[in-house]
């Protein structure tokens, strides 16, 4: 079968990456977590005290950032490297979640990340999740999914995930962060989060992981 590009966009903590990984595994495609790129850039900016209101400083910093994805055979997952350092775990921290949407709203940051994302999709056979993948990164993708779920369900899912790593995190903190990120992501000037006209909505509030996978694979079969 001809290799395709599958884009999965949507609100924070909808389970985009879970679905994307499942599909990539079944299809033998590459899975790319575009949000991890914005998170890694945010980590670099924080470590190097980059003032995000200073364009020159931001542009200079981007020149010193190299991002790669590497497959970890042990966990069978793709992991992100920032200048050669595996930061897959560090970028999931609340400190990053609190800053990432502001960093991702910067035009130069988006141009930097989008160029790399498009390069990764050159050979097709890729599932990429994010916010602007179907609208900006791969507007001609063969299958576009826009995921959504009830905010209460999303908060619970993300809280469980974060609590395992940090028992000090509170449900209010997680809820505020998700709502604020969704607001910034969908209201920024450069490629805001929105459903592509030809994307199919997948609301997984009441779906199991198996059911959402079946729904998505069925969409792909029809392509
Ligand atoms: O998917 P995630 O929660 O790891 O993404 C982190 C942030 O990165 C998210 O709040 C918005 C930003 N992002 C983006 O602007 N565009 C993308 N394609 C992916 C993520």
List keywords for this structure.
223 residues, three-stranded antiparallel sheet, alpha/beta, 9 helices, binds 2'-deoxycytidine-5'-monophosphate, five-stranded parallel sheet, globular, Rossmann fold
Please give the CATH class: Alpha Beta
What is the CA-atom radius of gyration, in angstroms?
Answer: 17 Å
Distance between the termini: 11 Å
Strands ordered across the widest β-sheet: 2-6-1-7-8
Unique ligands: 2'-deoxycytidine-5'-monophosphate
String of helices and strands: EHEHHEEEHHEHEHHEH
- Strand portion, in percent? 15-25%
The quaternary organization reads as single chain
What characteristic shape results from the CA principal axes? globular
Number of strands: 8
CATH superfamily: P-loop containing nucleotide triphosphate hydrolases
How many separate domains? 1
CATH architecture: 3-Layer(aba) Sandwich
- Largest sheet, strands/sense/barrel: 5 strands, parallel
Number of helices: 9
Low-confidence segments, ≥5 residues, pLDDT <50? none
Mean pLDDT: 96
Which structural category do the helix and sheet elements fall into?
alpha/beta
Q: Helicity range of the residues? A: 40-55%
Short description:
The protein has 223 residues and is an alpha/beta fold. It is built from 9 helices and 8 strands.
Write a structural description.
By secondary structure, this protein is α/β, with parallel strands linked by helices. The chain has a single domain, classed as Rossmann fold (3-Layer(aba) Sandwich). The protein has nine helices and eight strands. The strands form two sheets. It has a five-stranded parallel β-sheet. The chain starts with a strand and ends with a helix. The mean pLDDT is 96. Residues 12, 34-35, 38-39, 100-101, 104, 130-133, 181, 185 line the site of 2'-deoxycytidine-5'-monophosphate.
